[in-house]
């Protein structure tokens, strides 16, 4: 370990004053991220945080790393260029439900299908916070907001189901109010080779307070969260008394004792399993948290590097003079 | 048999898209260039992949001028029209000079073809072409006959008719077949039958022209005497691509292109994607703004980030462009302009994005705007755009257009060793480090990339505090930063060449042009000056900021006349910047100016001025 600086959480704290509302779930995410970086990050200078627009997207300012606060929904596209040029960097994208799924929906799915080695943290509070309280793509149908006084007419998008259908190689969910679980998930994301999508159920204390409370609140989480664990059965509820069992293309809930339990395998090649898990929603179903999917596929950067070496093998290293002189001729005098 | 010497010649190949017209034109141009002619080309093809066969909307044409003297355009009109069908004749006949030669393939003049082209009778024998010489034969059938010994499907044999026609044309201009035979051998080394068939067709066409008695003479266009050296013909899109590869190598940075396919810019993406062995990374993005964002991310990470598009695509990129303005990161945006607004005329040329390039962003958001003057000049302007973007930490818009992109010309190949790109490297060693401290000379901020130890910092689209770069909503700071950004861009005028002009300040009329109008305006001015008219001409390649001496030049003339392919955009900039009553001659037909139209406009304008005096 000679020459490697040992870092702690405080090394990742920037001097910029934090401007989130008191009680915002983002504070916990920030603290946990800083701790995870101290544990997993190689150096401060090799970590880059790229964000879009929204409350969550102020996140990079508060980290003593490189940071780029960009434009609405486009952080994954900017991250693509950064990582393609310098694959050595640990690139994190910070985004919210409006930013990633509405204005940035296109970039979100394409970043995922490319499987570039970037980590996308999607803070989901089911509301537009920075623009002060309109319904978002993850707001439930009928949600009353500033722009939907009679209820949102749109059906809610499930971010992780979308990620699964774009064949994300790493899919996970955690909550802002559970730092231990969050740290485990973020650490796994940091160590994943490929695009990691992490949905963080996050509370907006001003415009959508306690929206996730029915299932992730301290009193309800034992009953309604399903903690996904590698090679363990899909059990939930008090004393693990309930189980998810297969039902056609999806799941149904059964008593654990009577059921032939399904075992959680995040390495399942087909994305259909992760999609089915990610499509479950409260109150009909428990809300799964943890790592839904974790598979290995060649990354975009790896493919690019391979292609470059093929190109060099085929055509030799670039020779500018030869390139300019291609198809040339000596003019007759 | 007589051989007639010509100083220059303009010919046009026209047929159905699918007839191999573009290949035919490109082969003849390359051939002419290798023989030492100056060459300029003007391809013209439909926006549809396969417009209905035999109709005028499906006509693909290729016009070229080749010469024994310097030329600046692909020619106003042609002396020879090769028409593979009735629709090709119909759509191109208006540009054939009186007495010009029509070489027509009878196969393309069936009753159906004639009707589809909108003729009521066969134009080849109804007397309507009495002003021209017509040579008509069934070239398709002759090709089939010449190749019948080959065991090839008839469809494939018919496809060789373009090389049969090329054989005829090469005979007419007294040119050897050997270079084209060699090219075919190289091109189809893996497809022996195709190679053999095309070589046979080429020879058959040449022999046909030699043995039939329909040609009384042949013509010769000699090499340009004083121009020796290593040349190649190059299109604007190719020249841009090579220019950026060269710039990246000189700047010692990887080249990253983010792009989304769009006509007529796509060839830049195609070309650069073939040069991964140079370390070039091309990224075909999901949309235009993603392409620009990825390029900006690449620049942020230390690459020469570029993005290429055409008009409607530029609209979609603008939010990313403004982020580059605010974060002061280098980015080159290539806009190959086409007819607009909206989807407009995808395959036709226009210069109507100038105002958009200048002002099409929210906020006070100045950035440098450059415009290439000719296909070969695209190479030089790619270097310039890269130099300015990286030296001054700013996005740069480089304007090309459809005419430059697809047109090609002879290019004296530069020696890369002699190309220098002087990058003023901001001092990264200053302590303490602040991301928005400015270099005293260039006024640009340091380009410190992620991975640099000890200089972690955050940037973004929010207004920056001067020097520290922290987000700031302070009113005085916004005023100051707006000024700093404006001054940085305006200050670039000290780092670009002075404006050259032909003529003298004794002339009373100054002609201004920009971008691809360079060729036609230069040729027209030359002609008018030779006729004794006292006019000067300045062609602008730097549109923002203008060269420092432009004000002095303009002040030296009583009258200023601007030529541009849009509805009065440069003229308004000139009027606003220099507070003068410049006039303009504009054209928005999707076609480049003709030299003769410019000549006439200038004469008319001068007469108007004289009447007024």
From TrEMBL, chain A:
<feature type="domain" description="Thiamine pyrophosphate enzyme TPP-binding">
    <location>
        <begin position="53"/>
        <end position="200"/>
    </location>
</feature>
<protein>
    <submittedName>
        <fullName>2-oxoacid:ferredoxin oxidoreductase subunit beta</fullName>
    </submittedName>
</protein>
<dbReference type="InterPro" id="IPR051457">
    <property type="entry name" value="2-oxoacid:Fd_oxidoreductase"/>
</dbReference>
<dbReference type="InterPro" id="IPR011766">
    <property type="entry name" value="TPP_enzyme_TPP-bd"/>
</dbReference>
<dbReference type="Pfam" id="PF02775">
    <property type="entry name" value="TPP_enzyme_C"/>
</dbReference>
<dbReference type="InterPro" id="IPR029061">
    <property type="entry name" value="THDP-binding"/>
</dbReference>
<keyword id="KW-0560">Oxidoreductase</keyword>
Automatic annotation (TrEMBL), chain B:
<dbReference type="InterPro" id="IPR033412">
    <property type="entry name" value="PFOR_II"/>
</dbReference>
<dbReference type="Pfam" id="PF01855">
    <property type="entry name" value="POR_N"/>
</dbReference>
<feature type="domain" description="Pyruvate/ketoisovalerate oxidoreductase catalytic">
    <location>
        <begin position="18"/>
        <end position="206"/>
    </location>
</feature>
<dbReference type="Pfam" id="PF17147">
    <property type="entry name" value="PFOR_II"/>
</dbReference>
<dbReference type="Pfam" id="PF01558">
    <property type="entry name" value="POR"/>
</dbReference>
<dbReference type="InterPro" id="IPR009014">
    <property type="entry name" value="Transketo_C/PFOR_II"/>
</dbReference>
<dbReference type="InterPro" id="IPR050722">
    <property type="entry name" value="Pyruvate:ferred/Flavod_OxRd"/>
</dbReference>
<dbReference type="InterPro" id="IPR002869">
    <property type="entry name" value="Pyrv_flavodox_OxRed_cen"/>
</dbReference>
<feature type="domain" description="Pyruvate:ferredoxin oxidoreductase core">
    <location>
        <begin position="510"/>
        <end position="579"/>
    </location>
</feature>
<protein>
    <submittedName>
        <fullName>2-oxoacid:acceptor oxidoreductase subunit alpha</fullName>
    </submittedName>
</protein>
<keyword id="KW-0560">Oxidoreductase</keyword>
<dbReference type="InterPro" id="IPR019752">
    <property type="entry name" value="Pyrv/ketoisovalerate_OxRed_cat"/>
</dbReference>
<dbReference type="InterPro" id="IPR022367">
    <property type="entry name" value="2-oxoacid/accept_OxRdtase_asu"/>
</dbReference>
<dbReference type="InterPro" id="IPR002880">
    <property type="entry name" value="Pyrv_Fd/Flavodoxin_OxRdtase_N"/>
</dbReference>
<dbReference type="InterPro" id="IPR029061">
    <property type="entry name" value="THDP-binding"/>
</dbReference>
<feature type="domain" description="Pyruvate flavodoxin/ferredoxin oxidoreductase pyrimidine binding">
    <location>
        <begin position="254"/>
        <end position="435"/>
    </location>
</feature>
């Amino acid at each position: 370990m000679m020459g490697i600086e040992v870092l702690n959480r405080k090394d990742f704290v920037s001097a910029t004053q934090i401007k989130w509302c008191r009680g915002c779930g983002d504070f916990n995410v920030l603290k946990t991220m800083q701790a995870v970086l101290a544990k997993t990050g190689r150096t401060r200078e090799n970590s880059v945080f790229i964000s879009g627009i929204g409350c969550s997207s102020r996140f990079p300012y508060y980290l003593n790393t490189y940071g780029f606060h960009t434009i609405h929904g486009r952080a994954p596209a900017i991250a693509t260029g950064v990582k393609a040029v310098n694959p050595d960097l640990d690139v994190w994208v910070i985004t919210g439900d409006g930013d990633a799924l509405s204005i940035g929906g296109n970039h979100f799915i394409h970043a995922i299908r490319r499987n570039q080695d970037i980590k996308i943290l999607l803070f989901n509070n089911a509301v537009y916070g920075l623009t002060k309280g309109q319904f978002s793509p993850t707001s439930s149908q009928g949600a009353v907001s500033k722009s939907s006084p009679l209820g949102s007419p749109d059906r809610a998008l499930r971010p992780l189901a979308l990620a699964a259908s774009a064949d994300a190689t790493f899919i996970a969910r955690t909550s802002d109010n559970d730092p231990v679980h969050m740290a485990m998930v973020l650490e796994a994301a940091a160590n994943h080779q490929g695009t990691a999508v992490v949905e963080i159920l996050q509370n907006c204390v001003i415009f959508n307070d306690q929206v996730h409370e029915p299932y992730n609140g301290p009193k309800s989480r034992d009953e309604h969260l399903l903690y996904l664990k590698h090679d363990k059965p899909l059990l939930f509820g008090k004393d693990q008394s309930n189980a998810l069992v297969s039902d056609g293309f999806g799941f149904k809930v059964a008593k654990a004792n009577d059921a032939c339990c399904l075992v959680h395998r995040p390495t399942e090649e087909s994305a259909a399993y992760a999609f089915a898990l990610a499509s479950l929603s409260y109150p009909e179903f428990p809300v799964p948290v943890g790592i839904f999917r974790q598979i290995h596929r060649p990354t975009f950067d790896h493919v690019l590097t391979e292609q470059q070496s093929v190109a060099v093998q085929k055509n030799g290293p670039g020779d500018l003079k030869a390139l300019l002189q291609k198809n040339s001729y000596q003019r007759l005098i | 048999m007589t051989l007639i010497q010509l100083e220059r010649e303009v010919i046009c190949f026209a047929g159905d898209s699918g007839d191999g017209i573009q290949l035919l034109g490109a082969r003849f141009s390359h051939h002419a260039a290798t023989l030492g002619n100056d060459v300029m080309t003007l391809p013209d093809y439909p926006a549809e992949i396969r417009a209905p066969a035999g109709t005028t909307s499906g006509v693909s044409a290729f016009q070229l001028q080749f010469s024994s003297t310097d030329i600046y355009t692909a020619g106003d009109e042609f002396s020879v029209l090769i028409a593979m069908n009735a629709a090709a004749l119909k759509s191109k006949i208006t540009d054939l000079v009186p007495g010009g030669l029509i070489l027509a393939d009878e196969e393309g003049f069936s009753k159906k073809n004639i009707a589809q082209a909108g003729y009521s009778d066969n134009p080849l024998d109804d007397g309507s072409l009495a002003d021209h010489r017509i040579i008509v034969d069934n070239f398709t059938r002759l090709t089939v006959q010449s190749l019948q010994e080959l065991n090839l499907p008839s469809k494939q044999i018919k496809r060789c008719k373009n090389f049969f026609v090329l054989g005829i044309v090469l005979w007419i201009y007294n040119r050897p077949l050997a270079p084209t035979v060699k090219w075919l051998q190289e091109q189809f080394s893996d497809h022996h039958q195709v190679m053999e068939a095309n070589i046979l067709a080429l020879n058959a066409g040449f022999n046909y022209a030699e043995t039939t008695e329909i040609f009384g003479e042949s013509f010769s266009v000699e090499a340009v005497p004083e121009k020796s050296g290593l040349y190649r013909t190059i299109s604007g899109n190719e020249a841009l691509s090579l220019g950026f590869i060269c710039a990246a190598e000189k700047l010692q940075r990887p080249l990253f292109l983010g792009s989304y396919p769009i006509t007529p810019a796509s060839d830049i993406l195609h070309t650069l994607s073939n040069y991964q062995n140079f370390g070039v990374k091309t990224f075909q993005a999901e949309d235009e703004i993603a392409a620009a964002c990825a390029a900006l991310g690449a620049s942020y990470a230390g690459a020469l980030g570029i993005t290429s598009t055409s008009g409607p695509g530029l609209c979609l990129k603008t939010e990313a462009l403004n982020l580059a303005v605010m974060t002061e990161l280098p980015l080159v945006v290539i806009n190959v302009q086409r007819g607009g607004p909206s989807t407009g005329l995808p395959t036709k040329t226009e210069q109507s994005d100038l105002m958009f390039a200048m002002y099409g962003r929210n906020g006070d958001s100045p950035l440098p705007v450059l415009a290439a003057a000719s296909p070969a000049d695209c190479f030089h302007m790619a270097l310039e755009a890269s130099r300015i973007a990286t030296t001054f930490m700013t996005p740069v818009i480089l304007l090309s257009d459809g005419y430059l992109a697809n047109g090609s010309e002879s290019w004296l190949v530069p020696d890369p060793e002699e190309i220098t790109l002087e990058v003023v490297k901001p001092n990264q060693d200053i302590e303490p480090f602040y991301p928005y401290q400015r270099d005293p000379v260039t006024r640009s901020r340091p380009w410190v990339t992620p991975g640099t130890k000890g200089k972690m910092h955050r940037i973004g689209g929010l207004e920056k505090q001067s020097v520290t770069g922290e987000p700031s909503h302070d009113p005085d700071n916004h005023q100051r930063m707006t000024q700093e950004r404006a001054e940085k861009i305006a200050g670039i005028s000290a780092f670009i060449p002075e404006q050259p002009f032909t003529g003298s300040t004794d002339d009373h009329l100054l002609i201004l042009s920009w971008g691809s109008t360079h060729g036609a305006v230069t040729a027209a001015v030359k002609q008018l000056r030779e006729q004794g008219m006292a006019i000067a001409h300045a062609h602008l390649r730097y549109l923002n900021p203008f060269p420092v001496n432009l004000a002095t030049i303009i002040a030296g003339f009583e009258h200023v006349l601007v030529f541009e392919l849009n509805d009065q955009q440069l003229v308004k900039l000139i009027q606003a910047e220099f507070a003068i009553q410049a006039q303009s001659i504009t054209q928005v037909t999707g076609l480049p100016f003709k030299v003769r139209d410019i000549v006439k406009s200038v004469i008319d304008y001068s007469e108007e001025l004289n009447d007024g005096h």
